[in-house]
Amino acid sequence: MPHTAELIAVGTELLLGSIANTDAQTVSKALSALGINVYFHTVVGDNPQRLRQAVETAKTRADVIITTGGLGPTCDDLTKNVLAACFGKKLIYNEEAARRMEAYFRKLHPGTGNMTENNYQQAYLPEGCVPFQNDWGTAPGCGFEAEGIHVLMLPGPPSECGPMLQYRAIPYLSKLTDGVIVSRSLRLFGMGESSVESRLRDRMNSMTNPTLAPYAKEGEVELRLTAKAAEETAALALIAPAEAALKEQFGPLVYGVDVPSLEWVCLEQMKEKGLTLSVAESCTGGLAAKRFTDLPGASAVFKGGVVSYTNEVKANVLKVPQPLLEEQGAVSEPVARAMAQGVRALTGSDLALAFTGVAGPDSDDRGNPVGLVYVALAWDGGEHVREIHAAGPRDRVRTVAASHGFDLLRRRLAGLPL
């Protein structure tokens, strides 16, 4: 029988909107991969009465309760106390946890003295629990079973919650499930989620193992195939024919399987071919260069970029002819071509991308609408320009425009139609 989980995030700062509850997304993804259904997310402030109400409610509708936050040394860190009271458990001082905290404190603050007294309250854990050693912070987590419910407590800071989940909580939870659950994610660019879903609706409704689910990303779609079997190889064998059918159906729209991004695919292809890249950006304001150089290993490929936000920079740095700017305007196909050729000549790169358009919130002085962007790709002996019309606010227009540039680049590298 599949397990059902409820996530309880503890922290007044979450309710005030001071920080985002990214832990919930991280934990939910991990539970989904384990085949544990997440039906509720709850956020509660640093108040013992309200936290207890949230836990008592969760006990009626989940057999796995996972809390994040409230395990620190301050007076408002009450998660362990409340959880222990809800399940009738005493808090027992854990010497090993205390020694590990002392060692971590000495390493983090050498020469500043001993760990302050209030930190020791973090070493108290519910009786009979499995301690989760925290190698990324001070507060240990834990897991225990009571009243037919598995309770796991994780620290709140994402830098601690993520690795604690991966290396402590997931091994604990894996023992609760039979077999393995395996997922493969196909990434598509060039078709919206609603169009993809309409083409797959009948297939998705008829599939049971594996299952298929679409997820909308910014300007693209992820198709996740998930199968359950006794072993990983058997689960992958269940996925393989469905994956092949999707690749055949969507063809070059599929830019990768289990890959992180379009720009990552481009980087890997360019490293394999020994090619270099440069970019010229107007409306995207350096976003394409940032996305590419965020990737480890980009220095082997990326020559440089120019943020030519004004016509003066387009003309003086990228050598876009002034008459062309005056006649066609900065937001035009010919100018996009000239920008790509200009930055390629300037940097000596093998390929170059250029972006010019109207990100918003207003149309430009020539009446070009918000969302109109020309994306150009130049290479030795040729170039290609794609005209796009991106809907949405300024940030989305810029993001979608940059992605179209990487899509043009990966198609050129793969020998696909542009």
* Average pLDDT reading: 93
Please count the beta strands (DSSP E, at least 2 residues each): 17
Outline: elongated
Beta content: 25-35%
Number of helices: 14
Task: Describe this protein with a few key phrases.
418 residues, alpha/beta, Molybdenum Cofactor Biosythetic Enzyme, Chain A, Alpha-Beta Plaits, Maf protein, 3 domains, 6-stranded mixed beta sheet, 14 helices, 40% helix
Describe the structure.
- With 418 residues, the chain is α/β, with parallel strands linked by helices.
- It folds into 3 domains: 4-174, MoaB/Mog-like domain (Molybdenum Cofactor Biosythetic Enzyme, Chain A, 3-Layer(aba) Sandwich), CATH 3.40.980; 180-257, Alpha-Beta Plaits (2-Layer Sandwich); 262-414, Alpha-Beta Complex (Maf protein), CATH 3.90.950.20.
- It has 14 helices and 17 strands.
- It has helices at 12-15, 22-33, 48-59, 79-86, 95-108, 158-174, 193-206, 232-250, 262-273, 287-293, 311-316, 322-328, 333-347, 394-414; strands at residues 4-10, 37-44, 64-68, 91-93, 124-126, 130-132, 141-146, 149-154, 180-189, 211-217, 220-229, 254-257, 277-281, 302-307, 351-357, 372-379, 382-389.
- The strands form 4 sheets. It has a 6-stranded mixed β-sheet, sandwiched between helices.
- A hairpin with a 2-residue loop joins strand 10 (211-217) and strand 11 (220-229).
- Helix 9 packs parallel to helix 14.
